[in-house]
Each structure stands twice: as C-alpha cells, then as structure tokens.
Specification:
By secondary structure, the protein is α+β, with helices and mostly antiparallel strands. The protein folds into two domains: 31 residues, no CATH class; 131 residues, Nucleoside Triphosphate Pyrophosphohydrolase. 19% of the residues lie in helices and 40% in strands. It contains three helices and ten strands, in the order E-E-E-E-E-E-E-H-E-E-E-H-H. Strands 7-4-9-8 form a four-stranded mixed beta sheet, sandwiched between helices. The radius of gyration is 17 Å and the shape is globular. 23% of the residues are buried.
Length: 166
C-alpha cells in the first residue's frame, strides 16, 4: 500500500488488490485507529448526550460521547479517558457492548460501544476535551433520546445505533 495522505486523524492508502474472486482493482483505504462510543448511564432512565460542532458537515449535533484510541491505549482505557474528557465524569463500570464497522467500503475504523455507569466526579484535576472540541454535555432520558432520533434531532448514526443497544 502507498500512503497518499497522512493526517492527525487518519491516513489514506492506495494499492492494487486482488479480490477473492481473482479480479484486481485499485483500492483506496482510509486507515483509522479504533474509536470508542460511550453510553453514559446516570441511572436506568437517564443518559448523557453531548452537543458538538462538526466542521465536516458544518452543523452542531447531538451525539453520544466518543473518541479515538490513542497509540498504545486499549479501547477500555480510551473509554474511561474519553468519558472524563467529554462529560467530566469518571466511570466506575464499563461494559463492552460490541464492535462495529460503520463504513467498511472504504474505512477500517471500528467503533467499540461501551455502557458506562457508576459515574462520579474525578479526584484531582479533571481531563479536558481536546482543544478543537467545543462540547456541551446534557442529561436526557433514554425515551427522550429515542424521540430525538425519531424527530430527526439526532442525525449522528453512531448515536442512533448506540441507543438501540440499551
């Protein structure tokens, strides 16, 4: 594979690949470290969503907290870190709900979903969001979040899907 672009978030590689049926095609692949998607449960009926501006679509949207694993970091460690960075709380319990590939036609990113609970304030200095993030955490009921999907207020696929895992 030849790297044609390398950025902070992803890399693009291009190569000729032979498919299982014997045909050869040029393939471009976006390489992306695994990401974690959190479902922060305050209790059985309430979760935390975030509002965040997304420059790729020039919109502020409702989302479940999420983020990439850092190099050498396990998904479990990333889930705990992202929870504190994005909603300001530390999870006492992290339950892996599954890993899924949202765009396998061109990208190898895996989204690993975690239900996080037993949330508490961090001891010591709180980790902050990345400097390019403007995040507003908000508490909503699970029923309200599902209604937000039905109304079209939640347009983020990982969030809409994550709500089905509850």
């Amino acid at each position: 594979m030849q790297t044609v672009y390398k950025g902070r978030v992803f890399t693009v590689e291009v190569d000729q690949m032979t498919f299982p049926n014997g045909t050869t095609h040029e393939v471009a692949v976006v390489r992306h470290r695994p990401s974690v998607v959190l479902i922060p449960m305050l209790d059985a009926d309430r979760i935390m969503l975030i509002r965040q501006y997304r420059p790729a679509i020039a919109k502020t949207m409702w989302e479940l907290p999420a983020g990439m694993t850092d190099p050498g970091e396990s998904p479990l460690e990333a889930a705990a870190r992202e929870c504190e960075e994005e909603i300001g709380l530390v999870p006492g319990k992290l339950e892996r709900l599954g890993g899924f590939f949202p765009t396998p036609g061109f990208c190898d990113e895996e989204l690993i979903f975690y239900r996080v609970s037993e949330l508490r304030e961090p001891s010591g200095t709180r980790r902050s969001p990345d400097e390019d993030e403007d995040i507003q955490p908000t508490v909503v009921t699970v029923a309200e979040a599902r209604s937000m999907v039905a109304r079209g207020d939640i347009i983020d696929l990982k969030t809409a899907f994550g709500l089905t895992l509850l």
